[in-house]
Structure formats: structure tokens, C-alpha cells
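hiii, so i know i said id send this last week but things got crazy w the move. better late than never?? heres the sequnce for the chain we talked about at the cafe, plus the structure i predicted for it. fair warning i was half asleep when i ran it
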Amino acid sequence: MVYSDPTLKLFSCSSNPELAKAIAGHIGLELGNVTMSRFSDGESHVQLDDSVRGSDVYVVQSTSAPVNDHLIELLVMVDALKRASAKTINVVMPYYGYARQDRKARSRDPITAKLVANLIETAGAHRVIAMDLHAMQIQGFFDIPVDHLLGVPILGDYFNSKKLPSPVVVSPDHGGVVRARRLADTLQAPLAIIDKRRPEPGVVEVMNIIGDVSGRTAILIDDIIDTAGTIVLAANALKKAGAMDIYACCTHPVLSGPAIERLATSPIVEIVITDTIPLRQPCATSKVKVLSVASLIAEAIVRIHEKQSISKLFEPHV
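okay and structure toks below
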């Protein structure tokens, strides 16, 4: 199928070209032609090879590692589109880097998530489409529309298809309870919460498990798995509390440092992730299952372009 409106154009920066290709395939578009290069001193350069005058342009770029390179590349791309007379510039950020710096945790801390929002707006973006922002208030950091898509419908459909016996959805901390409840509602399963504390930076201790997990299939859910320390500690606590099998899932597989090794040697049966961030290294474990967000993002783009409501895409399937 070929999308019939020539004013809709889709471009990809360099962070996640495979996802961008998949999104274009679902819509029925060819990706726009753009040459991305670097000068000898490391400066990013963008050359648009297609006309975008009067077009509604969507740019796919996760600001994942190397975060600063991908962020600057996105800003240069938006500026190039603005100067090429694009009608609207819509930034599709499956993963919003710096989202965890969303507040002042200590005196003299920056709020870098807000700074990133300012930079994207100043560059010339008219809209942002993001998935599972680490903090909901980031939507309010922008003075342009932000469409916030959820990964729970995709993860929920997958776990429903597995028909796991006696599932219980587990939030690895108090901050993730809303997300875990959405998945629990989708699976019609009970909810449990890991009560943990941080006695010092980088150190986590599990104090208690709120809810019954004994003899059940536990499904840990988080928005991000970074070094996997928290998720593995939670899995060990669940196993000690009598959980039968343990699954883990997240929308954004940052998977930095020792994450893959930790997950491979953990009691977790399967780690379900999405492709908002491409895996940066070959997976040394067969436990990892990757689900695509391409069809969800493609549907959001088409609905926005055709001025239809996309509110149903914000909610999990129940």
C-alpha cells in the first residue's frame, strides 16, 4: 500500500533507522532522502536531498546513546527542515533522553529534561510524539503539543497471548505503580509492589514485597532497564518470596554496562523489550524478546496528519 497524500513526509536520523523504515512500511511511505555526515572536528551536518516545502514532516530519532550526538543531530535536522520551508515539523522521539533529570533532586541540580524541551522548541519543532516518558510532567515542559504513547498495550497483548498461569504484575518501586496497574488491568491480574530504599547513591535494598506472589507467575514492568540492577534485585526478592516463574518487561532497553550479563544470570525467564532503542550489542542471552512499536507510531502519525483523534492510542487494551 502507498500512502496517497504527498504532503506527508517521513525522515530518519541515525539513532534508529530500522524502526523508521518499519514505521514507513506500515504507513506506505518511502523514507525521505537525507545525507547525515560529520566534519573532521566532529560537528554534525545534515543535507536534505528531497524538497519539503509546504510538507508535514515527521522525523524519527531516539535520543539514546550516544545521547549528546543524537540530540545535536536531531536539532540540526529540525533546523534544516525549518529553513527548507517545511509546513510542520513533528519530532518522533520513541525514547526521550535526559528524561530522568526531570526535577531538582539535590541543591544546584539542573532540570535537563526541561532544557532538552527548550532546545527542541527553539530549533523549530511544532509537535513531539514520545513513548513512555519517564516522568509525566515532561509533557508540561513543552509549549507545543506532546502526544504521549504507551508501551503497555503492546506488552499486554504479548503476555495475554502467552496465557501465563496465575500472573501477578509487579512494580519494582512505588514510582512505577501507575504503569504496573495499567498492565495488571490489561491482564486482569493482581498487583504487587516492591518496597525498596536507597541507603546511598547507586545502592538499592529491597525492604518488603507488598502483595501475594507465592506460587504465581510474576511479571516485572518498568519503563527503562538501564544497568538492570534494580530489576534483577527485584527478581531475586520475588524468587525468595516463592514466585513460580519471573518475567520482566520494559519499553526502553537502555541496557548499559553489565545489564546483559546481569539479566542472563538472573532468575528471570524472559525479558520483553521494545525497539524504541536498538540493541547496541549482540544479545549474549536468548532470554530477550523484542517487540516492535512501529505500527503504533505509524497509526499515531497517520491520525495526526489526517486530523483524527489519537486518544485511544494512549490507553492500554483491556
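btw The chain has eight helices and 14 strands. thought thatd interest u
miss u guys!!
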